Amino acid sequence: MARVTAGVGSSHVPLLGVAVDQGKTRDDYFGPIFAGYDWTREWEAAQKPDVVVLVYNDHASAFDANIIPTFAIGCGERYKPADEGWGPRPVPDVEGHADLAWHIAQCLILDDFDMTIINEMDVDHGLTVPLSMMFGQPEQWPCKVVPLAVNVVTYPVPSGNRCWALGEAIARAVESFPEDLDVQIWGTGGMSHQLQGPRAGLLNRAWDNRFMDMLESDDDAVRHIPHIEYLRETGSEGIEMVMWLIMRGALGRKVRRLHRHYHIPCSNTAIGHIVLEPVS
Amino acid sequence: MTDIHDYLEEFEDIPGTRVYTAKRARAGYHLNQFAMSLMKPANRERWKAGERAYLDEWPLTEDQKQAVLARDYNRMLDLGGNIYFLSKIFSTDGIPFAEACSTMTDMTFPEYREMMLNGGRSPEGNRSIKGKC
Fold first, then answer.
1. Cis omega before residue B39 (within 30°)?
2. Out of A125, A261, A263, A273, which one is annotated catalytic?
């Protein structure tokens, strides 16, 4: 049977993709960020997951203002990097795992999560930047990916509690898939940042680190943080961190932290990432 | 269950922030779809060749058109724009995200960049209008 072997929470700032694509990852500005990911890249190379369920948000790339799915799961065979206004990133196509994706989609719907199913879409920096951070610049991505896109743009976005419960349901679905697969789940986005209005540029190191402490904890208090707290404390785009709770919910009650890193700033954003494994 | 009226009211208490609510999404629907259209290279070319003529193909209000032509991003947010959609406009202009953000603040881009390098804008005093905290 398939199993969830680990979870990763990570920022997905587009400028990190630019740094990778333009060979600037070790300069003075980006060096401290990419150094923080060195451990994780080596760990991923050793882990060799078969599939990553990659939770992210689309930034007006695949979805326009017309259709706004709260939770959408990619059930296709393959996804191309999106043209976000300056041409697609020069990264490999993303290979899906249609069998596992359809299995998860069916299980989630039976488990009362009314998923939107996507057969064809392009994937933007929200999905490809975490792949670059974890895997570097291979000719092909070393694993298959099940994209799971969350609406964190148009309010109301899903609650932290609902995201956590979705993660639990994803883990149940993975564990009932008959193939022998190592599956990781990644929650991406954040950490604190605000990209709009006179308050743009807000960052909150103390809150972000408290959030990561809560993710490491055995209790699930973090799922009950209300939207207004994310908005006030972490900026209007900090709400992306609810997607980390899908990852955390999938790992069960007790986790072990393998790695954690935090850095300010990258462009407008606080960069953080955490690697957790379930403890049974 | 969360009461929708209480939920939305709290959003108006955050200084310098327009939360992208359903009301804004409705008002800004065509503005955002116009911005989204700039993802296609052929549309970008037509836009660059004549901004006003391109805008006139879209059912925007005159206020929205003026805000776009003036690149007044705060005004576009007020009129229902969402920053991820509006980013297609400044990407087409060749302006980085951080520089576009700085235009919405009371800082120049170099001042804004300096603030970010020094740890960003503090949440202190920026959490609540009513609570002044």
1. no
2. A125
Locate the domains of chain B by residue range: 20-117
A227 and chain B in contact, CB less than 8 A: yes
Write the pLDDT tens digit of every residue in A16-44. Answer: 999 999 999 999 999 999 999 999 999 99
Distance of CA B127 to the CA centre of its chain: 20
Q: Taking a C-beta distance cutoff of 8 angstroms, is the pair A186, A243 a contact?
A: no
Cβ atoms of A223 and A163 within 8 Å: the answer is yes
Q: Say whether B121 and A264 touch across the interface (CB within 8 A).
A: no
Say if the Cβ atoms of B97 and A60 lie within 8 Å: no
Question: Is the per-residue pLDDT at A85 higher than 90?
Answer: no
Distance (Å, whole) CA B60 – CA B58:
6
Q: What is the value of pTM for the model shown? A: 0.98
Q: What topology is assigned to A3-278 in CATH?
A: Protocatechuate 4,5-dioxygenase; Chain B (3.40.830)
State the distance between the two ends of chain A, measured CA to CA, in whole angstroms.
16
A202 neighbors A35 (Cβ within 8 angstroms):
no
Residue A125 and residue A133 in contact, taking contact as beta carbons nearer than 8 Å: no
B115 to chain A: nearest residue by CA?
Answer: A201
Q: What does the domain layout of chain A look like in residue ranges?
A: 3-278
Contact A268 B97 (CB under 8 A): yes
In CATH, the number for domain B20-117 is 1.10.700.10
Please give the Cα distance from A241 to A152 (Å, whole number). 9
**Catalytic member of A97, A193, A263, A273:** A193
Beta-carbon-side half-sphere exposure of residue A216 (alpha carbons within 13 Å): 14
CA–CA distance, B89 with B81 (Å, rounded to integer) = 11
Spell out the alpha helix ranges (H) of chain B: 4-11, 22-27, 29-37, 41-49, 51-55, 62-69, 73-78, 83-92, 97-102, 109-117
> In angstroms, rounded to a whole number, what is the distance separating the alpha carbons of residues A150 and A160?
12
| Whole-complex ipTM | 0.97
CB A197 to CB B77 under 8 A? yes
What gap in Å lies between CA A6 and CA A33, rounded to an integer?
Answer: 22
